[in-house]
Amino acid sequence: MSLKPSSRDWQRAIADARQGLSAWHVWNLLAMTDIRQRYKRSRVGPFWITLSMAAFVGGIGLVYSTLFKQDIRTYLPYLAVNYVVWTLIQGIIMDATGVFSSSGVYLRQEAMPKTLFAMRLIMRNLIMFAHNIIIIPLVFLLFGVWPDWEMLLAIPGMIMLLVAAYPVVMLIGMISTRFRDTPVIIQNVLQIAFFLTPIMWKVDQLGAAAPFVVGLNPFAIFLRIVAEPMNGRAPSLWTWGVAILVIVLLYAITGPLFARLRARIVYWL
Amino acid sequence: MASIILENACVEFPIYNARGRSIRRNLMARVGGSVAADGDVVSVNALKNINLRLTNGDRLGLLGHNGAGKSTLLRVLSGAYEPSSGTAEIEGAVSSLLDITMGMDPEMSGAENIVLRGAIIGMTIPEARERIPEIAEFAEIGDFLDLPMRTYSSGMNLRLAFAISTAIRPDILLMDELISVGDAAFASKARQRVQELIASAGILVLASHDPKSLLEYCTRGIVMEHGQIVFDGPIEEAIVRHGMEVPEIKKEVPAATGA
């Protein structure tokens, strides 16, 4: 089977992406339903997301500030920002493994655009992110951190993260639907990535190895492009450059692959 | 303007067994060499070389034994399955009443489900909200509208699913057996609604084992065997070809009006 998409494949893939984006009311509604359904019968509802985030950050913050001999007043806000952004990245990647297999009911009997389900997934994770980010101003207030103008750079960073998330979801979604071991592999990669990414530790603690572990690690790049401004530092040009390069690569790989395999996805469900 | 053109459409399902779906297996096959070269992927030919042209006004009955490919063909016609080889060009808004409860969530209320399903089958959200009372009334769910659907009786579930699924007027209507829901009173109401839907649809495709309903709603029939069309002609002949008797009924078909 050739992996080269025909012009017809391209047309249909582009139509799929266009219809997927324009059906924003559908993915928005599906995403809201996902969240509401998960916390339907609980009293606190979706704010469990916020509470469990606060518990994790508080607990880890106390232990690690002692372990790393860091001042908790700077360490805990640092950790809170990083972990909130990491949760978004991790959530998108982890959910991506089931993006099509969990939508089988729809895909098997309606001609719905496949990309719609990627949008739904990203939206759902954004809603979770919105719940998590509540703790950041609280933590800042508690430890007297005053936000800088650099913080505004988190907005373009966030946009780049989302632009990258779209092909990531499609790519991981397709591979995971075809090869059922992929979700487990991805889970393991994420676990390792959590420790290789400056979430709990600071880059300068790493010494000479820092450029390799942080500078070329795509997880670290996309984490820092959002988290650094929130911590009051502008990301380096290197970070921006690598982020753009990764985005270009992601689209260059996912585009043709999606065009070629889009119609096969339903057959693999 | 509704139209469906299938040319040499084939649907071939790869059946990957547990090993076939694993990356390890794939890597080993490439690295290791001769071990069972693609012996793992068995494929099922669900449809073979289907040629079919339908235009406005066509009322097509699908006949065939279980496993002959009727449901797969319906899914190709809905656009969900794109042929693995050959082409399928489908123009017009399709409504497939294959699984009317699709996408309904037992934890959500009836009203929420109306909006959810409504959005999926092509309504805007304000439009779906606006139609909640009308749909709920048709489904006769009364005060249960704002309760989670898991509290519904199975009859209420089906009535609501039916009321939502039939709330839009499609150009192309696909059905797997005529839907029958509810008690006698609701069944006659439902039947009337289905007749209206059929009358306003440009194209109807009905898969059924019941010669009476086929004769009542369809004019053309195809008989399928092992994923292939073995007969294509007037519905009466198709029924005979399928080995059934043509029942004596008077046709009260709402004439095809076209969309």
From TrEMBL, chain A:
The record's GO molecular-function terms, alphabetically, read: ABC-type transporter activity
List this protein's GO terms for biological process: lipopolysaccharide transport; polysaccharide transport
Topology with regard to the membrane? Multi-pass membrane protein
According to the record, the segments passing through the membrane are: 45-64, 84-106, 126-146, 152-172, 207-225, 237-259
Domain ABC-2 type transporter transmembrane residue range list: 30-226
Q: Name one GO cellular component term.
A: plasma membrane
Q: Which InterPro entries match?
A: ABC2_TM
* UniProt entry tagged with the keyword Transmembrane: yes
Where would you find this protein in the cell?
Answer: Cell membrane
This protein's name: Lipopolysaccharide transport system permease protein
UniProtKB/TrEMBL annotation, chain B:
Which keywords are on file for this protein?
ATP-binding, Nucleotide-binding
Q: Which Pfam families match?
A: ABC_tran
Q: Name one GO cellular component term.
A: membrane
- A Gene Ontology molecular function term of the record: ATP binding
Please give the superkingdom of this protein's source: Bacteria
Residue ranges of the ABC transporter domain? 23-251
Keyword Nucleus in record: no
Task: Give the matching InterPro entries.
Answer: AAA+_ATPase (IPR003593), ABC_transporter-like_ATP-bd (IPR003439), ABC_transpr_TagH-like (IPR015860), Bact_Polysacc_Export_ATP-bd (IPR050683), P-loop_NTPase (IPR027417)
What is this protein identified as?
ABC-2 type transport system ATP-binding protein/lipopolysaccharide transport system ATP-binding protein
Mind giving the lineage of the organism this protein is from?
Answer: Bacteria, Pseudomonadati, Pseudomonadota, Alphaproteobacteria, Hyphomicrobiales
